[in-house]
Design brief:
Radius of gyration: 42 Å
Structural class: alpha/beta
Strand order of the largest sheet: 11-15-10-16-17-9-18
Strand content: 5-15%
Helix content: 25-40%
Number of helices: 37
């Protein structure tokens, strides 16, 4: 018992020592031939800014060893040094180049390689548990563009920058630093923006807030990606592992791992997935057979391989079983998995056996991959298998994986085992707080809130004892009381008027109009910006719920008060030197005291600077102790929770090296190993490691290299460890049965994978059905359309993009789901063009985002893949392929599809672009040609599902008449009885809107104004229920008198009262039940009693009317429509108006002779383009007397003067339809209703007051909805344009392009001339009334399509 306890204590101490050794890694003294082992983690000034005139320094820079990957290494030191120097050069060479360019041209602006930041000033230090971080403000004036900090890669966390003083400009001074926080809010979004960084050498720390600096950043060469691997390589130099013989000498012995050799029995029951011929068995029989087959495999000796009979019981094919056996047994297990062969599934099967063959939590297995996405994919499968998993790093976007982060594991863990760690943490945290307090005291002395304490100057030796005494004793006069906010004290009195407040450094960035695109790094190198994975994990930022925001105490550094120095005197000036020598400070000339005080401030800062840096150094050491404490607690937490799998990226293998080494893993698996740099894996070879598993495919994506020249010979940084070992013929297993592609698509891959075969599942037509509407499941569409170059120097091909978008729309018309289609391209410029085309021309289909660059789609698949090759300079050339000639990228691009694969590109260009291009694409072209699926000049064949007729599409214009079928006319009728009238289409009629005019008569008596397939509607008030007196106003606010009068016919006032109701003096309910907004007693001015807004209480003006149809507020009576007599009410109002007119006399003459007219004040109400009500100015309306004819019926005056307006098609979204000819004038005749605008009519009346005074009746009517009988809206602006169609059947066709929009109109203009015009909106287009009607009915047709 005691021995076990002592062993546990020894293990704990050993874990602590390993962590401490990694965090406080002490570099050895330089040794000849091994100098690289003593290089510091961060680069020095000499590394970044050497003396280019010194041959020795230049030679040191160029001291790179060749990476001879095709032969074994001489020794381990050379092997490690080569990769160390290549990693270091990758991280710093571009910044060194940028500094050199700046020194040659200090006034240079930002360029594609360099970012220059000027007017850099230190604002303070943020004291965090990760160490001190310097905050600076800066200017981006050299960029010439506005920076979008949320999207840009500028100043990303982990980026290496170089800083110098503005006066030196890197002549002699170069101070490296690492960006530590990319804070947007209250940081980079400010003007001037601010950023935090950590000094590479704290002896460089700047304390002077007035010292102007300059900062340089390289756009490539991300230092964080290589920083930790370099330190890991220095650790490996002192560590021996069983893997050294394979990696250095290329040993082919293929030995079993030590732990497997010692205990070869494993539980492989998880390989049993089914029982042969189980379809004829009962459930109990199947279970019995499973148990019978599984039991002998509980303790199975794996060294001699698997029994051949096992293949009948497992879902793994023989190559996968062979790979599982290799993973279970070998020290170095290499498995190559071509596309679709199930690499990840095979890895999970092997890991499951390893974990089930050991005690839970006894040994952790490290699982890593190059990208966060690949790590998360394999961890999800392991979690679903029931294993305990933890994810290191905070960059995962998978919500399920976030629950298994180290942060959440700490929260779930019991704290019982953390007593020592908590005790140490409290000790370190206490020391950190004392350190911050000490630094704060120093800052207060150097940068006080008022003026410097004279005692501080004396203690620092800046002034003598006699000068201090003179200041205290020989005050010349009694000072006047200081102004509010002014400093007090001896020096404040001594300075007097020379004391001035320091103006803050508030340099403002220029307000640039141009905006820097976040794709500015995409320079058409042999690298796609999608591959620029920052891969930060939580390198600097804590992986907590702060979302990356670093907490700490900020200590500002700034002078609040100083002395006036208008002559800019310094200590070098004789007059100041003389003043400084005076023993009595009061003898100093008052006009020079400001300059003397500035000198004292400067000297005090210089004297305290070293102390300041020493305190920062202590803080950094305390931060390291806190990191040791954190990793120690994490190690104990992982063990207490019996974690079995630790997942991280290959960058994280080095970043968390101390923590992972302390857990002493014996197995490490690298997924997508061929995509990972050799140095990242090599630097993670911990001393406890007994087995390394590499799973990948060196024929697909290779490691990424930012630095030009390092990727190719002789440095070969894009050659992975996986590829090197396979090339050296180290034993490995190849998976040879694919389960992704149908056989014809697999044939395209066979030139690159000759042994690749099909699993029976891919031949099942139910699992891989044909692509609907297509003659072939794959096709190479060849064209010679010319490419373009966008503002970010990325390639695009607009016609190719349009062709692809139309083809995708055709597939959707034929029933393919959006989620089943992926569009791949090699260029970000083309990706943006395709997305813009989809957004502008396919809005009715909903959002579509499955457009990716090839590099970002590694490991993914989809049913249908469309590949855009982009590169083309016509038939004559010059022919260039760019990185299309990269065979690794090419293999990825042609291996993602399950059912359909379609390539769009210029094969002539690829054939003539060079040997590499032809070697890649020539093989593919030959396969397509052999299958009869290479387009040549024929076009793309599509096949109608209704008539099995094949049409060849050779140009984007050819799609104008395509409705998803062939060119025959649909003979069927819709459910309404109208003929369909469209061209052949696959979509069923119940999903289509009938576009014939509606023939129904509505209850209002009018004909329906909609299409037949839409809900019936009319714009009249009887149908809509929207009457002119419906707009309620605040009863507490009196309406002002209007400026103009409007005459109206009183017979129009109550048009809904029937003849019988009028005769009987009452009307039936209805609108009289509506109450006003204000139920008080204040009357509405100018509102007719009884016809108004209140069924319970009629409101009248205070001067009101008396009669049977009116009541006084509070009289207890209630009158509604039943007691309303319109004729009597009119007569009363006429008499009242006459009396008022007579009383006013000649002082208020009526210009139009209608002295007895009734005045009614109201506000005109209109609707704006968004359906909101606009209430206009008050208008006083005068009504003419009721007709003299004694008629019980109301008379209607329908003679409304029509106003004709130019008719435009409705503008829906951003795709306006522009008429090629003059605007049509729609009149009220020939079946087209008159169009009038209430807004324009009212405005015209207001602009011309005489219209209300000359007896004319102005037009005040609601806008009538246009009824276009037999005319489709699109035909008004573009009537059946005739477009020439190229390719097969190149007859002239009528452009009856269907409107694939939800009760809307789409642009049918030629797509050939689009060329980005689709991205612009017509700002002058205003949606017409037709559009408003369509929008009102839009919700009813969410599942319908109108042509």
């Amino acid at each position: 018992m005691a021995d076990a306890y002592n062993q546990d204590i020894a293990d704990v101490q050993h874990e602590f020592d390993i962590i401490k050794h990694h965090v406080n890694f002490e570099l050895p003294s330089p040794t000849p031939g091994q100098e690289w082992r003593s290089y510091p983690e961060l680069p020095t000034s000499r590394d970044l800014n050497p003396d280019w005139r010194d041959p020795q320094q230049v030679a040191q820079i160029h001291r790179l060893l060749p990476n001879n990957w095709k032969q074994p290494w001489q020794d381990k030191n050379t092997y490690l040094e080569t990769h160390y120097r290549l990693q270091r050069e990758e991280g710093i060479t571009m910044l060194r180049y940028s500094i050199k360019k700046f020194k040659q041209d200090p006034s240079m602006m930002d360029d594609p390689e360099t970012c220059i930041y000027t007017k850099v000033f230190v604002r303070g230090y943020l004291m965090t548990r990760l160490g001190p971080m310097c905050q600076v403000q800066f200017s981006t004036e050299r960029s010439g563009k506005k920076i979008r900090w949320i999207q840009t890669r500028r100043l990303t966390v982990g980026t290496l920058v170089a800083i110098s003083t503005a006066s030196d400009s890197f002549k002699t001074i170069c101070m490296p630093a690492i960006i530590s926080e990319h804070r947007i809010r209250d940081g980079l979004d400010q003007n001037s923006p601010t950023i935090h960084f950590q000094w590479a050498n704290l002896d460089d720390a700047i304390v002077d807030p007035n010292q102007e600096l300059i900062m340089i950043e390289a756009r490539s060469g991300y230092f964080e990606a290589v920083r930790h691997s370099m330190v890991g390589l220095q650790h490996v130099a002192n560590t021996e592992t069983p893997l050294d013989k394979y990696l250095v000498q290329a040993d082919k012995s293929d030995l079993p791992a030590r732990y497997v050799k010692n205990s070869p029995q494993m539980d492989i029951r998880s390989l049993i997935h089914h029982v042969p011929d189980s379809s004829s068995m009962t459930t109990s029989q199947v279970n019995a057979k499973m148990t019978e087959a599984s039991e002998p495999l509980r303790r199975y000796s794996v060294l001699d391989g698997f029994d051949h009979r096992l293949s009948r019981y497992t879902n793994l094919d023989n190559s996968q079983l062979s790979a599982v056996h290799r993973i279970l047994t070998k020290e170095l297990a290499i498995v190559q998995g071509p596309p679709g062969t199930g690499k990840t599934f095979t890895s999970v099967q092997a890991l499951q056996i390893l974990l089930e063959s050991q005690d839970r939590g006894s040994n952790v297995i490290i699982v890593a991959a190059q990208t966060n996405h690949a790590v998360d994919q394999i961890l999800i499968q392991l979690i679903n298998a029931g294993f305990n998993v933890v994810r290191l790093g905070g960059r995962t976007q998978n919500e399920d994986i976030k629950r298994y982060s180290m942060y959440n594991l700490r929260r779930r863990a019991a704290p019982s085992w953390t007593q020592r760690a908590d005790r140490d943490y409290k000790t370190f945290e206490s020391a950190r707080k004392k350190n911050i307090a000490t630094l704060e005291k120093v800052i207060d002395e150097v940068f006080p809130n008022d003026v410097i304490n004279p005692e501080t100057l004396r203690s620092a030796g800046i002034i003598s004892a006699s000068q201090l005494e003179s200041l205290q004793a020989d005050q010349a006069w009694t000072p006047a009381p200081p102004s509010p906010g002014q400093p007090t004290g001896l020096l404040a009195e001594w300075l007097g008027s020379q004391l001035v407040e320091v103006k803050p450094q508030d340099e403002k960035d220029p307000d640039f109009e141009a905006v820097e695109d976040n794709d500015s790094l995409d320079l058409d190198l042999d690298v796609d910006a999608e591959d620029y994975d920052l891969e930060l994990d939580d390198c600097i930022v804590e992986e907590d719920d702060k979302a990356g925001r670093i907490d700490g105490k900020f200590l500002p550094i700034k002078h609040l008060w100083t002395g006036a120095n208008h002559q800019h005197y310094t200590e070098k000036d004789l007059v100041i030197r003389r003043e400084l020598q005076k023993p009595n400070l009061w003898d100093i000339d008052p006009k020079h005291r400001g300059a003397v005080y500035q000198y004292w401030q400067k000297q005090l800062l210089l004297l305290y600077r070293q102390n300041f840096r020493h305190i920062l150094g202590d803080n950094a050491r305390i931060a390291k102790n806190l990191k040791i404490n954190k990793w120690y607690k994490d190690a104990k937490c992982i063990k207490s929770q019996q974690i079995e799998i630790i997942g991280c990226t290959t960058t994280g293998l080095c970043k968390y090296r101390g923590l992972l080494a302390a857990l002493r893993p014996r197995t490490m698996l690298i997924e997508e190993a061929a995509e990972t740099r050799e140095a990242n894996i090599l630097s993670a070879l911990y001393g406890s490691l007994q087995q390394l598993i590499l799973v990948g495919d060196h024929r697909q994506l290779a490691p990424h290299c930012d630095t030009p020249g390092l990727a190719e010979e002789p440095y070969n940084m894009r050659v992975s460890m996986f590829e090197r070992l396979v090339n050296l013929e180290i034993p490995f297993t190849v998976l040879n049965m694919q389960r992704r592609m149908i056989p014809s698509l697999r044939e395209v891959l066979n030139p690159f994978y000759p042994t690749l075969r099909d699993h029976p599942v891919v031949t099942n037509s139910d699992a891989r059905p044909p692509v609907p509407g297509m003659a072939y499941p794959s096709f190479f569409f060849h064209h010679t359309w010319t490419e373009g170059l966008d503002e970010n120097l990325s390639r695009y091909n607009i016609l190719e993009a349009e062709m692809i978008v139309h083809f995708m729309e055709y597939l959707l018309m034929n029933g393919v789901k959006m989620s089943q289609i992926t569009i791949l391209t090699f260029y970000r410029g083309q990706k943006k063009k395709i997305l813009a085309q989809i957004k502008s021309k396919m809005k009715q289909w909903g959002p579509f985002s499955n457009v990716f660059t090839v590099d970002s789609y590694q490991g993914e698949e989809n049913d249908i893949v469309i590949l855009s090759l982009v590169r083309s300079n016509g038939r004559a050339g010059p022919h260039k392929a760019g990185f299309l000639q990269d065979e690794n990228r090419g293999v990825v691009s042609i291996s993602r599809a399950r059912r359909g694969f379609y390539i769009f590109g210029n094969m002539v260009n690829l054939a003539g672009a060079g040997t590499a291009s032809w070697s890649m694409w020539g093989k593919i072209q030959r396969v397509f040609a052999r299958q009869g699926r290479f387009g040549g000049d024929t076009g793309l064949p599509i096949t109608c599902q209704n008539h099995c007729k094949t049409i060849w599409m050779s140009h984007p214009e050819d799609w104008v008449n395509c409705h998803g079928g062939c060119d025959q006319k649909c003979p069927d009728k819709l459910s309404c009885g109208h003929a369909c009238g469209r061209r052949c289409h696959w979509i069923t009629h119940d999903k289509l809107l009938c576009r014939e005019p509606c023939e129904r008569t509505l209850p209002c008596g009018h004909r329906c104004q909609q299409f037949c397939g839409e809900n019936c509607a009319c714009s009249c008030a009887d149908f809509t229920g929207a009457y002119s007196n419906d707009e309620f106003i605040n009863g507490n606010t009196a309406l002002p008198e209007g400026k103009f009068g409007v005459e109206y016919d009183t017979s129009h006032v109550v048009p809904f009262i029937t003849h019988d109701q009028r005769r009987m003096g009452r009307t039936a309910g209805g609108r009289g039940n509506r109450r006003g907004l204000d139920r008080g007693t204040q009357a509405f001015r100018g509102v007719r009693s009884g016809v108004g807004y209140n069924s319970g209480t009629s409101r009248v003006p205070d001067h009101g009317l008396s009669g049977p149809n009116s009541m006084r507020p509070g009289d207890g009576q209630s009158h509604g429509w039943a007691t309303f007599n319109a004729r009597q009410d009119d007569e009363q109002r006429r008499r009242q108006a006459q009396e008022q007119a007579d009383s006013m006399g000649a002082s208020n003459p009526r210009s139009n002779g209608t002295e007895g007219a009734i005045q009614d004040t109201f506000r005109p109400v209109t609707l704006n383009d968004y359906g909101m009500r606009n209430v206009g100015d008050s208008i006083t309306a005068r009504a003419t007397p009721s007709p003299e004819k004694e008629d019980d019926l109301l008379s209607f005056n329908d003679s409304v003067e029509p106003v004709t307006l130019p008719m435009r098609p409705p503008s829906l979204g951003s795709d306006s339809i522009n008429s090629d000819g003059p605007a049509e004038i729609i009149s009220g005749s020939e079946g087209v209703s008159a169009i009038s605008s209430p807004t324009r009519s009212r405005q015209g009346a207001l602009d011309n007051p005489s219209a209300f005074q000359d007896g004319r009746t102005p037009l005040l009517t609601s806008l009538a909805h246009t009824r276009l009988t037999g005319i489709h809206p699109v035909q008004q602006s573009q009537s059946c344009a005739r477009l020439p169609i190229q390719g097969h059947g190149s007859a002239v066709r009528q452009a009856d392009k269907p409107e694939w929009e939800l009760a809307s109109l789409a642009d049918t203009a030629s797509v050939a001339d689009a060329n980005d015009a689709d991205e612009t909106d017509d700002a002058n287009d205003e949606p017409g009334d037709s559009e408003a009607e369509l929008e009102r009915n839009e919700g009813a047709y969410d599942d319908l399509i109108i042509f």
